Amino acid sequence: MNTFQIKIHRQLQRTRKLFALLIAAVLAGMNSGPSLVAASSPSSASSGALQTTIYPTLIGSFQVVNNGTGDQTDPHIDCNLASYTNDDLFGSATVRYFDFATNTDHVIPANGQDSLADVRGTRIAFTEASMNGDAIVVFDTTTGQRTLVPGARRTSPALGGNLVAFEDRSFLADWNQSEISVYDLNTAIATRLTNDVLMDSFLSVSPSGDAIVWEKSQTDGSNGDIYASIQTSPGVFSVSALTGAAGEEQHPDTDGQTVVYASKRGGETDIYFQPVGGGAETQISIPGDQRDPNISGNLISFESQIQNATGLEYDIFVYDINSGNLFRVTNTAIDETLSDISVCNGVGRIVYAAPAADYDCFVFTFQLSPSAVNEVNDLITLVRSFNLPQGTENSLITKLQCALAAIGVSDTATACVCLTSLINEAQAQSGKKLTADQASQLIHSATLIKADLGCQ
């Protein structure tokens, strides 16, 4: 079984087998979705529990990425680029990417045995099978340059900063006794992060490359736990376990600050998150089983099991860490699967695969909530409550008014710059014109607002 088949096989074990549906029915179901559902706001307890079973629908638009012949699946997204695998079902598989800035689709030149791609910035990393064994290739969409990571029996790459991490099977003969290794694209140095006889898989790298998370399990995929590696200095990594015997965890993702994962406890699988360095867990507790969580900014996307007239199926949901609100994205009679989220410059996108006569790729695009305006106004009120010297107060408020004005005209980049200037001033004035506690409050609040806006 090649790497593409392994990935799909493991995913399909967790997905109900469906009868083929016409693609027109899929799109009709999607287009019925993006309107606000009449429902009470989800409650938000300290545990993150949400008890209501009807949720407001996230407003946005759906678009076909590729619904051509064969399977289009395993999509990933970063800002304007989405990568995915295109399998013609006759022995050839290619990695393609869709550019939302130009609304164009592209194929990466390769040998026709390519799959399991990830995207970050202008780079796409993927697995390329050959007679010499599976290898990692990194393709730059701007220059067209291909970089081959040295070595074989390496699969399932993830990108972040200058690093590409991957499942490394070059150390042990058993395919399922995989390790995690990272390769620095600047220095061409590879570093092994794990050394055991377990299966290390389903890895994710933060955008900056400073944090790597993965699932460590038995070789049959059972008894999974989440591990993290923090890059403390260039090429130096500290590895630690984030979960233990409380549950069976799988499929982590991280933005560098938070790690999110699915965990089966007490017979039900829910989504949990905690600081990437370890700390208190928060559970998103809703009915049914959840899977495939991903995080970007302050938003977590995942798929949740729903009972409808035709039976059980999975729809996509989004959870806002800051507000504790939960939104429904899709409402169809089929399973959406393998979803991924990106929040970038005030625009959110979720890519996913869905079955019809075969698997196809779609994207949901939405604008971030105007709650950032209220948050900035609240921060202005906070600054005024400090009773600071007039010059200091005016300087801080001017930067916040700058952010408000930019948000008002949808100039997210300028708003991000204004908030960064506020954070820099608060850091500089800590212990001087601001107490350490006042500076901490301002920095924390401004950082959350930047996350809401999707600042890079």
Output the CATH class name of the largest domain. Answer: Mainly Beta
Low-confidence stretches: 1-52
Reading side by side through the largest sheet, how are the strands ordered? 1-28-27-26
Distance between the termini: 39 Å
Helical element count? 6
| CATH homologous superfamily annotation of the largest domain | TolB, C-terminal domain
Q: What percent of residues are in strands? A: 35-45%
Our Rg estimate from Cα atoms comes to 22 Å
In round numbers, the mean pLDDT is 87
CATH architecture of the largest domain: 6 Propeller
The global form is globular
Question: Can you describe this structure?
Answer:
The chain is an alpha+beta fold and 456 residues long. Helices cover 20% and strands 41% of the residues. A 4-stranded antiparallel beta sheet has the order 1-28-27-26, with helices on one face. Helix 4 (390-408) packs antiparallel against helix 5 and helix 5 packs antiparallel against helix 6. The longest helix is centred in the C-terminal third of the chain and has 19 residues, at 390-408. The two termini are 39 Å apart.
Can you describe this structure in just a few lines?
With 456 residues, the protein is α+β, with helices and mostly antiparallel strands. The protein has 6 helices and 28 strands.
